[in-house]
Design goal:
about 170 residues, mainly alpha, 8 helices, about 0% strand
């Protein structure tokens, strides 16, 4: 058996992918908590954990289990899917499914699957997603969103949104 191709550790790819997901979920927890004006301590009290544990969830240091994610979603009044919104929305499905039986060649074929997905941290869509999340976590953005939702008249809110969007468009389209 003289295979000259270097072997790659699939566990390393899976681990990196899991860490990326953990960080994304943590950022979404922080985003929703701050939009609601909750401190880490208050959220921790609602969940029966310390604020340090909330910090670890938000940083992606500690993985959030399914039952804990359900509790967090309930406390923050969002569906569980909220924590996965905007996650690799433009990534190629084949890169996300690498390693699943449906994407592998059948047993008994002479050539192994030669396509290796790009490492997640260098993925351009992931970089754009991270930049967008950083923008959403800014105090200025949070203040704007809070003020927007304090406008009681829905039609007025819509007009304000349209005004801001028109101001944000490039001058060439005006």
């Amino acid at each position: 058996m003289s295979n000259t191709e270097p072997l790659t550790d699939p566990a390393a790819t899976i681990s990196t992918h899991a860490e990326t997901i953990d960080a994304h979920v943590g950022k979404r927890i922080r985003l929703r908590r701050t939009l609601l004006g909750l401190s880490q301590e208050k959220l921790g009290e609602a969940l029966g954990v310390t604020f340090q544990q909330i910090q670890k969830y938000e940083r992606g240091t500690n993985r959030v289990g399914a039952s804990r994610l359900y509790d967090i979603a309930t406390a923050l009044d969002v569906p569980i899917s909220f924590f996965f919104d905007d996650m690799l929305s433009s990534a190629k499905p084949s890169a996300l499914n690498h390693g699943f039986a449906e994407t592998r060649k059948p047993f008994g074929t002479s050539t192994p699957c030669a396509t290796t997905p790009p490492a997640l941290p260098s993925n351009p869509s992931l970089k754009a997603m991270t930049d967008e999340q950083d923008m959403l976590a800014r105090k200025e953005t949070l203040d704007l969103v809070r003020a927007y939702y304090q406008i009681p008249d829905r039609d007025l809110r819509q007009k304000m949104l349209e005004l801001i969007q028109s101001m944000a468009r490039p001058s060439a389209t005006r």
